[in-house]
Amino acid sequence: MTYIAKPRLHHPSLAKNRVGFTRRDYxxxxxxxxxxCGHDSISASIIQACWELDIEPHRVAKLSGIGCxxxxxxxxxxxxxxxxxxxxRMPSVLTxxxxxxxxxxxxxxxxxxxxxxxxxxxxxxxxxxxVNMTYLVENNGVYGLTKGQFSATADKGxxxxxxxxxxxAPIDLVTLxxxxxxxxxxxxxxxxxxxxxxxxxxALAHQGAAVIDILSxxxxxxxxxxxxxxxxxxxxxNEAVNRLDFIPLHEEITADYAAxxxxxxxxxxxxxxxxxxxxxxxxxxxxxxxxxxxxxxxxRGEVVTGLLYVDPExxxxxxxxxxxxxxxxxxxAAELCPGAKALEKINAxxx
Amino acid sequence: MKPTDISxxxxxxxxxxxxxxxxxxxxVPEYIRLIAAGRYSEAYMVNWVSNVFPGILGRTCDRPCxxxxxxxxxxxxxxxxxxxxxPVAICRLKRVAADYKEDIRSLLPQPAAQKNGRRVACIGxxxxxxxxxxxxxxLGYEVVVYDGDRLAGGMMRTQxxxxxxxEGVIDEETGYILNLGVDFRGGQYIHSxxxxxxxxxxxxxxxxxxPRGQDLxxxxxxxxxxxxxxxxxxxxxxxxxxxxxISKRVIVLGGGNTAMDCCRSARRLGGxxxxxxxxxxxxxMKASPWEKEDAMHEGIPILNNLVxxxxxxxxxxxTGVTFQKVRSVYDENGRRTLVPTGEPDPHFExxxxxxAVGQENAFPWxxxxxxxxxxxxxxxxxxxxxxxxxxxxxxxxGDAAFGPKNIIWAVAHGHEAAVSIDRLLNGEDIAARPAxxxxxxxxxxxxxxxxxxxxxxxxxxxxxxxRDVSAALKNIRIEVELGFDPQLAFKEAQRCLNCxxxxxxxxxxxxxxxxxxxxxxxxxxxxxxxxxxxxLRGRLQAPAQNRSQDLYVSGxxxxxxxxxxxxxxxxxxxxxxxxxxxxxxxMQKYLLVMTHAGCARTxxxxxxxxxx
Lengths: 351, 612
What we know:
heterodimer, A: Rossmann fold, three-stranded antiparallel beta sheet
C-alpha cells in the first residue's frame, strides 16, 4: 500500500492513441491493495487493453461487488462510470444499467468470493441472459479481506497458509460459464500480461456475455507452497491452449503465420481474433469438447489457460428482447411516456 | 547482457547526473536535502568540503551540473514554449546554504598544530591555488601563496563584477583558507619560477590563470587605442576602483561570459547605449544562456553574425565600428565557417569599445630552460590526472593548466594537484590515485516510509528574485540577485529527484509479480528475456534511447527472464520498492565523497566527519 500519489511525470516516448489519450490517462487512483497483489497487474492489463482499443474512458461503465477484487475499479479508468454494488449483486445492477443504456461498454469486476459464493446465482443468470459485458473474475482462491479463509474456488486438497487442508470441491467458474451459455470464455493469469491483454481486448470487443477467469495470486494469504493459486504453482502448471492476436476492426491484418497453425475468428463487430494453436487438438468453437478438455486437464492438476470458447454468432439480450435501439436517456418524454391511448392499446392486445 | 556490477564505484555515481558532471563531484542531492530540511550549515559544509567556495560558486558557477540534471529530461514541454523542461536550480540553492548558514568556523579544519617540515609554494591566489592550500595546510605543510594583487581571490575578485559577486563573500571564503595557517604574500608578483624553486620549496603549484586578453587586430585599432580596452583588464580596473565611469555609447565585442560582464558593468558606469556585437549566431555564443538573459534583461541588445572589420575614428577619437554581415555554414564534419552574406557593411556608432574576444595563457615568468616543457599552443605539458608538469615537483591547475575554463574546474584541479603533491612528498606513486569513499545505505523506515521525501513535486523551476532594474543599474556594487528566501528554496529543493537514492534490486528475492513494472510512472522497469544491449534497448517497456545512461540488468530470475531497468528517466520515487512484496527492491542512498589529499593515509576523511 502506498500513500503518495503516483507522479504525473511520464516517459518522454509515451504515445497517444487514436482518441488522443496516453496510457496514463486510463489510470485511476493509486492502489491500496497489498504490495505484489495480482489484482494490480490485472488493473494494469485493463489500462493497457483499453488504451490499445482506443476506447474513450467515458464510454465505459465499470461495476463491481465487494471484496479486494471489487475495490480495483477505483485503480483504473478514473474517468469512467463506476458503481460499487452490494456483495454478489453486480450482475443484476449491470443488467439494469445495460438495459437502460446499451451504448456503454460494460466491465463487471468481481472475485471468487463475490462470484462463486454469495453471487453464484447472479453469475449463472447473467451468463444465460447474454448480457453484453466483460465479466472479470479476479480469482485468488482465498478470502483476503477476512484474512485468508478458503474460497469456493480453492482446490480440494490445497492448503491454507496456516496448514489446514481444504476438503470441499472447487467451483470451476470457466466450466460453469460454459454450461450457462456464455459466448466468450477464457482463463488468464495475472502474471502473464502477454496473454492477458489480448484476451481482454477480444473480450471487450465481443458482443455478448464474455467471462475471463483470471488467476491472481494473493500475496499475503495464498502464495505459499501448499497453494494451487500461487505464482509458482500457476507458472508450473499453466497449459496455454492458444496464443491470441486480437485485431480490431480498423487495424490491418499483418501477422504472418504458417498454414494450419492459425484459426481466425471474426467477431460480430468485424474484429478478428487470431488464435495460434498451442494444443493441436483444441477447437475453441466447440463448447462440449471445451468442457471435457478443461475437466480432463484439471484432473491432471493442469491449469488450462487461453481463449477456451468463443461463439462468433453470439446474440445479446437486447436483440432477444427486441428493445429500442437508443439508450433511454436519449429518448424524449413523448417516446418514454406515450400516453393513455398507447397504454390502452397495449392492454387491449393482452386481453 | 551480463548482470550489472553495482559495486563498481562509477555505476551509481553515473546515475547521480549532477555529481557525475561536477568536476569536483559535489554530492548535490545530499546538500539539497539538507537545504530543504533547513540545515543550511551542514549543506554549506557538504559543499565546502567538495568545492571550497560555496558562496562564490552559488553565484557564479558555470553549473555543468544543471544541463546534466535528470529533472530536465522528465518534465513535460508545452509545444508553445510556455513551459520548458528545466533542471533544478542547483547553483542558486548552493547560495541559499551560504546565505542562511550559521557561523561555521568551528566546523572547519584547524591549522596544523605541528608543521611537517615540507614547503609548498602556490603562484597566484585564485581558486586553484587556494584549493591546494586548503587541502595541504591542515596536514602540516607550510604553504606560501603568492599573488601580484594585494588581496586573495584571483579572477574571482578581479573579473567578476561586484553586482554578481559581492566583495564580502570573497573575503569570507578566501579568509577561511588563509586562516588555516597559510602564508599569503599579497602584492608580491612572481617574475621568475627559477627564483622560487631556488628558495628550496619541496613543490610548486602554478595557479596563475590565463591573464592575457586577446586583442583584435583590425584597422583603426592603434589610432583609436585610447578608447578601446581589453575586457578583462578593464574589468580588473573596475574591480579595483581605478575606472569609475564610461562614455554613453559602448560597443562590447565578443560573445562569452566576459563580454556579458563587460556590458552589464558598462551599463552601471554611465553607458546608456550599450550593445554586444558577436561574430557567431545567438545560439552558438559561448556565454551561458542565463548570463545572456541577464544582460538582455538590463536592456542590452545582442547583435549577431557581425564580424568587426574596422574601427572608425576622427583623428584618434573613436566614432564607431564597421562590421561585415556573415552567416554560419557548417561542413560535413560540423565545422563552422562564417561566410559573408554580401550585404552592405553596417556601421555602429560608439565612443568606447570593450574587446572581450578571448583569453590566453602567458607564462613570461617561467624560464624555458628549467625543465618545464610547453606545447605548440604555449600551454605546459601536463599529466591530465596528476596535474604534474615535466618538472616532477611543479604542478599546474586552473586556467594555467589547459587554458581558460572556470572556477569549479580550477577547484577540481587544485584537489588533484594537492593529492599529487602529498603523495610525491611522502614517497608514494602519484599515478596511483586514491579511490573515492562510497557508501550505500538503505533508506527504509517502514513499509512505505523512507528517510527521504519520495513524493515528486510538480513545480516548475522557480525564478530567483531580482532587484528592480533601475535600482540595480544605479550602483555597480549592489548585488542584482536577491537569492531564494527559505520558502522559495524549499520549493525549489523539492524539485530535486534524489537521484542518489538508488533503486537496488536483488534477483534472489524477486517473485516476478510485475508490481514494480506496473507502478513505475516512467516505464523504466521491464522483465524480459536477456539479449545484447542494442536488442534490449529496443524492446523494453519503453524504448531506452539515451545511450549515455546505463541499463541495470539483474541476474537470471526463476522464469529465465531478467529484470532490466533503464536508469535514464527514473524519478527515484521509490514506488517500485513500496510495491515490492518481498523487498527485492530497496531504496539505498549512495554517497560518494572524493578522497582529498591526506585523507586516504589518515583514514579519517574530513568529508566523512561532516557528511553523516
